[in-house]
């Protein structure tokens, strides 16, 4: 596309939370960005759905258009910030097919059609970059793709959704109600257009698929990620966790095994001393473990218009430099690469089990035996004291007691079988919650 000393013509699709900030930077900081690229850059148009809509930054009227396709056909570099599958997917494909570069933050699309879009880009020699899609402002994809390209990554684990971290943090620290905390996260520009994607873990799962793909050099898709969101996490769970010295976080984990990889997203208990436990508000943090590098931690603002625009602009500068230099890129995921996604039953982690049990002798021994029978060993056990069951208690009936167990590392398959058998015991009235625990990084 652009030749040396040419102007790099940039087309922006979407001017919402992130897009408006990107437009502002491209207009107000045009000289700086051009100097960083080494070639003049120019924002030639901003495709929007409604030119009259109020925005966080007022875009000059002459840049606004509702004809996204025409803009795609004219620009050297397209920044896609509409989000969702369509029309974003078709517009990105259209740009790549004509060899134009694309910068996007669209994790939902990348986690479903990433390999296909990469293949189109490879075919036409177009550049496709998406640093903003994971961890907002945090430089995480480029370090994985470039800085760690001479090492073997074995695990990536982190807090990658700002909205849910904000909600859990507010519930934990201020006792805010779930709905109020979500409304605030939406107001602050952290949430997806449909916040179900955040709350049910789909956004984090898309990010897990992207992280796994780049870390393990093989394609993984959203539907290969085991996913549990935070809608089942109650204020009682958070309180019980706090009483035992834990905090609940939604973690995304991609773990390499000899014969594949387990990718999973679920609420997780972390000891308050764990580095990820202190990640507050909409901040994100990602641990990367590599054979030679050991443990690395990346931390920063994971959501919000301005922070995310920083990652978009980094990709814009890097891409515009590439257009100018016309250097071919070696793909991070080689054509034909394949690594099986393993089922959640293959995951190994620690577990927290909270139960209401009969308050009588021998109960603990009976429970311990069930765990032992399934090769699940106990790290710690608490009995926060007898608690009353709700409603009327007839005289002579036992009140029941609470038992909280944290296991050592166990296989998910064994844990499932353990919980199933515990539920069938007469002495176990109910298993109130089962949560995975990460004690180690
Ligand atoms: N907000 C964040 O913190 C954040 C962080 C990282 C990545 N992202 C991703 O960036 C993208 C944009 O996020 P956002 O928060 O800015 O979303 P947003 O909903 O605020 O903005 C999207 C904009 O696109 C517009 N739009 C919809 N259809 C259009 C069309 N056909 N043509 C032109 N414009 C159209 C909408 O009117 C809206 O203004 C999404 O893919 C999101 O997942 C967002
Ligand atoms: N909705 C996303 C935006 C950042 O990708 C989040 O809350 O993390
Ligand atoms: Na990022």
TrEMBL record:
InterPro entries: ACT-like_dom_sf (IPR045865), ACT_dom (IPR002912), Asp/hSer_DH_NAD-bd (IPR005106), HDH (IPR016204), HDH_cat (IPR001342), HDH_CS (IPR019811), NAD(P)-bd_dom_sf (IPR036291). It catalyses: L-homoserine + NADP(+) = L-aspartate 4-semialdehyde + NADPH + H(+); L-homoserine + NAD(+) = L-aspartate 4-semialdehyde + NADH + H(+). Signal peptide: none annotated. Its EC number is 1.1.1.3. Residues 352-436 form the ACT domain. Belongs to the homoserine dehydrogenase family. Catalyzes the conversion of L-aspartate-beta-semialdehyde (L-Asa) to L-homoserine (L-Hse), the third step in the biosynthesis of threonine and methionine from aspartate. This is Homoserine dehydrogenase.
């Amino acid at each position: 596309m652009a030749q040396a000393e040419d102007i790099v013509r940039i087309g922006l699709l979407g001017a919402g939370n992130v897009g408006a900030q990107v437009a502002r930077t491209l207009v107000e900081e045009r000289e700086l960005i051009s100097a960083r690229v080494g070639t003049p850059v120019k924002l030639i148009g901003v495709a929007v759905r409604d030119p009259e809509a109020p925005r966080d930054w007022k875009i000059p009227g002459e840049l606004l258009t509702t004809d996204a396709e025409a803009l795609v056909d004219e620009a050297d570099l397209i920044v896609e910030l509409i989000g969702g599958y369509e029309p974003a997917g078709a517009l990105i494909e259209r740009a790549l097919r004509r060899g134009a570069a694309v910068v996007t933050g669209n994790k939902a699309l990348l986690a479903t059609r990433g390999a296909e879009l990469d293949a189109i880009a490879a075919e036409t020699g177009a550049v496709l970059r998406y640093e903003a899609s994971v961890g907002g402002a945090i430089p995480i994809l480029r370090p994985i793709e470039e800085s760690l390209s001479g090492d073997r990554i074995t695990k990536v684990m982190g807090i990658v959704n700002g909205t849910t971290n904000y909600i859990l943090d507010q519930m934990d620290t201020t006792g805010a109600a779930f709905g109020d905390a979500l409304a605030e996260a939406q107001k602050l520009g952290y949430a997806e257009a449909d916040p179900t994607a955040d709350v049910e873990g789909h956004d984090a799962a898309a990010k897990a698929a992207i992280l796994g793909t780049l870390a393990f050099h093989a394609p993984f898709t959203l539907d290969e990620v085991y996913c549990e969101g935070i809608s089942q996490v109650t204020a009682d769970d958070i309180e019980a966790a706090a009483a035992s010295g834990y905090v609940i976080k939604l973690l995304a984990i991609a773990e390499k095994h000899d014969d594949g990889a387990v990718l999973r997203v679920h609420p997780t208990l972390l000891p308050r001393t764990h580095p990820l436990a202190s990640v507050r508000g909409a901040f994100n943090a990602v641990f990367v473990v590599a054979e030679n590098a050991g443990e690395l931690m990346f931390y920063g603002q994971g959501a919000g218009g301005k922070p995310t625009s920083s990652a978009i602009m980094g990709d814009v500068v890097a891409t515009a430099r590439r257009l100018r230099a016309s250097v071919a890129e070696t793909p991070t995921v080689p054509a034909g690469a394949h690594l099986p996604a393993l089922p959640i039953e293959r995951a190994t982690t620690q577990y927290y089990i909270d139960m209401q049990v009969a308050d009588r002798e021998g109960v603990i021994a009976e429970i311990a035996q069930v765990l032992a029978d399934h090769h699940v060993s106990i790290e710690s056990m608490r009995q926060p004291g007898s608690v009353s069951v709700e409603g009327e208690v007839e005289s002579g009936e036992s009140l029941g007691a609470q038992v909280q167990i944290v296991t050592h590392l166990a296989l998910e398959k064994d844990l499932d079988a353990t919980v199933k058998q515990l539920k069938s015991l007469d002495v176990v009235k109910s298993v109130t919650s089962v949560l995975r625990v990460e004690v180690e990084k």
